[in-house]
Amino acid sequence: GNSVTQMEGPVTLSEEAFLTINCTYTATGYPSLFWYVQYPGEGLQLLLKATKADDKGSNKGFEATYRKETTSFHLEKGSVQVSDSAVYFCALSELGSGGGADGLTFGKGTHLIIQP
Amino acid sequence: EAGVAQSPRYKIIEKRQSVAFWCNPISGHATLYWYQQILGQGPKLLIQFQNNGVVDDSQLPKDRFSAERLKGVDSTLKIQPAKLEDSAVYLCASSLFPDTQYFGPGTRLTVL
User: Fold this and answer.
1) Is B25 on the interface with A (CB under 8 A)?
2) Residue B60: which residues within 8 A CB-CB, separation 6 or more?
3) DSSP of A68-102, one letter per residue?
4) B97 to chain A: closest CA residue
5) In this structure, is the dihedral angle defined by the CA atoms of residues B89, A103, A3 and B77, taken in order, positive or negative?
6) What's the CA angle centered on A52, arms A7 and A55, to 5 degrees?
7) What is the interface size between A and B, counted as CB pairs within 8 Å?
8) Rounded-to-integer distance, Cα A78 and Cα A61, Å
9) In contact, B95 and B31? CB cutoff 8 Å
10) Span B32-86, pLDDT tens digits
């Protein structure tokens, strides 16, 4: 079956530091890949996505590139802010037989703490 | 555009009691999902609907959990009877396009 593995947290960084959160996946087909973010007290929000190999998703200064050869989708940001403190989830889904997306398979989440 | 609505936001019950959660997806979204998120873990899919038909319920504990989506819009998820290990956040999501799901705020269930 499908699975997602992401680095364990918490990850603690100083403001303006460079961020990398590693994510690797196992899938039977050709999945779409996602990063979701959960800010304190809020629901899951889509941060970025990539739907095919070599695609780069980007949003709010975050980037991730779909690497089929290494089955990875690492999240990066050049300069983090205190407001980026949240839990980040890597996820995948495949196109179902009915044309809709299968349910998402999530990693366990990485808690990011940015200190001023 | 209104997001995915869920209610209640919080629920506390005792084990062996029953509970129901409600979800209203984004207007026009044909696909609806229910997930269970246990503390410290990523969400796990329980059931997926396409309009009012079930696409995938392979991870739904059918001896105690049930879900329905009448008229292809709103959905309810029920647990009867609840166990301690059902304490979790129950998330509803909907999608229009095949690859992007939008999540509601969730219902936090505590089973005592």
Assistant:
1) no
2) B46, B47, B67
3) TTTTB--EEESS--GGG-EEEEEEEE-B-TTSSBP
4) A100
5) positive
6) 75
7) 71
8) 7
9) yes
10) 999 999 998 999 999 999 888 999 999 999 999 999 998 889 999 999 999 999 9
